[in-house]
Write a structure and sequence with these properties.
Blueprint lengths: L8 E6 L4 E6 L6 H8 L4 E5 L6 H9 L5 H7 L1 H6 L5 H11 L3 E5 L12 E4 L5 E8 L4 E5 L9 E6 L2 E12 L4 E5 L5 E2 L11 E4 H11 L2 E5 L1 H15 L1
Antiparallel strand pairs: 1-2, 3-13, 4-7, 4-9, 5-6, 5-8, 6-7, 8-9, 10-11, 10-12
Length: 238
Amino acid sequence: MPFFPNYITAPYYFGDKTFTVDAPDLAAYSDIIDIVKQNESFYKKYIIPRGHRPDNVSQTFYETPDYHWVLYMINDNIRESGWPLEQYDLDRRMLENHPHKVMTTKDNIFTTFLIGSTVSGSVSEATGTVVRRNVDLGQIFINTTGTFIDGEDITTVIDEMEVSITMDTIEDELEAALYYEDGAGNPVDIDPTVGPESNTKYRYTDLYTERNESLRTIRVIKPESIVRIVEEFKRVMV
């Protein structure tokens, strides 16, 4: 990255800290970036086209890919969360983070179907292991390769006693409710023994999609200002 030689260096320690090397101090920061972010005359809002990398955006605005690092400096969202993902990569990340199935029931699960319990379906005979619970929504997250059936009874064993509940639905974790919203889009509490009624579920996939899309809107320094701002930034960093 051609900009790194302009950073202040700092000692970086390896292993048992007996060996060090001077490396760019990436924690160093300049007030000029804050000044730019607070002054709308220096930048414009831009929606990143799908498939465009930081160097593509730099090339589009400045006819060089070398200012890609500036995009991270003036945009807290992509500096903290990363560049927006394309759909394939987003799907893969969501599945990696939420690979389980979610059972929903109106029965009481406060003291049953605890994490680590083995569950089985009375009709499907599928089995799984409880990995997480959300009793406020009547949800049991399970790790399984089997195929459970909506509406079947689910059993587990507690202190050598078989306990059974009726499962209303089972679905992929990504499609399960993270919480519920009323007609105005406001989060609402539900009674898990009654269910969501007319409220709408806000899914895990909705969260990831909205967050990823929000990363597409960024600040871009105007071409007529980029050289002056970069030179000033380099000057105060050395």
